[in-house]
Amino acid sequence: MAVGSIMVTGGAGYIGSHTVLQLLLDGYQVAVIDNLDNSSATAIQRVRELAAHHGPSVTFHQMDLRDKPALDKLFASTKFDAVIHFAGLKAVGESVEKPLMYYDNNVVGTITLLEVMATHGCKKLVFSSSAAVYGWPKVVPCTEEYPLSAANPYGRTKLFIEEICRDIHRIDSEWKIIMLRYFNPVGAHPSGYIGEDPRGIPNNLMPFMQQVAVGRRPALTVFGSDYSTRDGTGVRDYIHVVDLADGHIAALNKLSDPSIGCEVYNLGTGKGTSVLEMVAAFEKASGKEIPVVFSGRRPGDAEILYASTKKAELELNWKAKYDINEMCSHQWNWASKNPYGYKPSESKS
């Protein structure tokens, strides 16, 4: 895509902020929409600083996607060439407890966005989907052709949105949509200036581990030690967040390909890493011991889950560059400089 104006929903979040930075460095004008439910405006300020002279090219709008009049007003005032859509709630456990909240926020928010985009003739979209749409596949690596079946309400919101995208493209071929299914995002910008800052108890391995390393939590709980894997712990495909951000730029470029309709790509490394292998790599990177407490398997957790990335490598000309040692090193650089995320150190909330 020729450099233009991009809207990024959820752009103050973990993956969103890293992608906004890459967009700015590539010369794009970026408008970030975020309701700051699980993110921080400080992330955008830091992105501006990292982007140096490109920093003024980003504007920030605190807004909920379900606020149709506000969204409509923004589209009326700016001609966007495409939208990258990250905004959404993403905690699996919370989605099981509060399914209606997830369907309202994720699905209704996306429908509102698509309606407003159509009204203003902006029909190019990169959607942040998830490997959660595969449920728990019996064979790995997962290819894009796998049957879809989500194991929880969070995953179902991603699956429903994918189906909505396929449906609108089916009846209006002007839509060009790329849906990116990514696996386990980790790491941080090499500067250590932006990274993951989850609210409350982290749901994922890496932010939990970093909170143990900086002394915020006493030990890491590992769910399941009796899987049929190398060391008995679950195996996942961890991907560096900067590689993921570059994948979104590659998808954006692909939208200018006349042959693109509604397409889906996995973004991962294509390699599986066990929980204990990740713990060892993080201990090495941080120089900190991570005490581990083993607990029973979590219901619905897959034993082994990693991506086939051949399609993205071939069609998007994209490939993950960072290995797990670099992921852990960059994560620790962020965590050691920002032990309480974007909050001041004395604030422990």
What key attributes describe this structure?
349 residues; alpha/beta; seven-stranded parallel sheet; three-stranded mixed sheet; 11 helices; 14 strands; 38% helix; 17% strand; globular
Report on the biggest sheet.
Answer: 7 strands, parallel
- Order of strands across the main sheet: 3-2-1-4-5-6-11
Our estimate of the beta-strand percent is 15-25%
Q: How big is the Rg? A: 19 Å
Give the strand tally: 14
What do you see in this structure?
- This protein has 349 residues and is an alpha/beta fold.
- The protein contains 11 helices and 14 strands.
- It has helices spanning 14-25, 41-50, 68-77, 92-97, 99-119, 153-171, 205-213, 241-254, 275-286, 310-315, 324-337; strands spanning 5-9, 29-34, 58-62, 82-85, 124-130, 176-182, 184-186, 220-223, 235-236, 238-240, 262-267, 273-274, 292-295, 304-305.
- The strands form 4 sheets. The protein has a 7-stranded parallel beta sheet with strand order 3-2-1-4-5-6-11, with helices on both faces. The chain has a 3-stranded mixed beta sheet with strand order 12-9-14. It has a two-stranded parallel sheet with strand order 7-10.
- Strand 2, helix 2 (41-50) and strand 3 (58-62) form a beta-alpha-beta unit.
- Helix 3 packs parallel to helix 5 and helix 9 (275-286) packs across helix 11 (324-337).
- The longest helix is centred in the first third of the chain and has 21 residues, at 99-119.
- The model has no long low-confidence stretch (mean pLDDT 95).
